[in-house]
Design goal:
Blueprint: E1 19-26, E2 32-33, E3 38-46, H1 55-73, H2 77-80, E4 84-86, E5 92-93, H3 104-109, E6 128-130
Antiparallel strand pairs: 1-3, 2-5, 4-6
Length: 141
């Protein structure tokens, strides 16, 4: 964790942890919320001896995450939640970000899987907020 500087963006991990999985929830590469096209990350860790998530189980987890994203981004979702809205906090970027190859200790410590991560069809940011202010319509009497 320290060598790869993974603690910079996360809490300190217990020394007993022997397995870690990070599943990014992505936005499109050319229409994403700045600064990077990552809306969220699902972290899974375990201190159980020899714990591992195989590709079949990983595909199931990704399918669940994809359904979650699909439900959050469908057009009728805001109407279903009443006063809860998803507010954007950052601007939208359109420059494609270069993918960096794993090098050094990262290449020896991490395994990349050949499974596409869950993604949204358009820019999306998880920032749900509740408001007592409700839009009103004046109706003719």
């Amino acid at each position: 964790m320290a060598d790869l500087r993974l603690n910079d963006a996360s809490s300190k991990m217990a020394k007993e942890v022997g397995f870690i999985l990070a599943i990014p929830l992505l936005e499109p590469e050319r229409n994403y919320t700045l600064p990077q096209p990552v809306a969220a990350v699902i972290y899974i860790d375990s201190d159980a001896p020899d714990f591992f998530i195989d590709d079949k189980s990983l595909r199931i987890l990704i399918s669940i995450a994809q359904r979650f994203l699909d439900s959050l981004t469908r057009s009728s979702f805001a109407d279903d939640l009443g006063r809860v809205r998803n507010f954007r906090l950052s601007a939208i970027g359109s420059r494609r970000t270069a993918v960096k190859a794993l090098m050094g200790k990262a290449a020896r410590s991490l395994e990349l899987v050949d499974v596409a991560p869950p993604a949204t069809a358009s820019a999306f940011q998880l920032n749900f907020d509740y408001s007592d202010f409700v839009p009103t319509q004046i109706r003719p009497i």
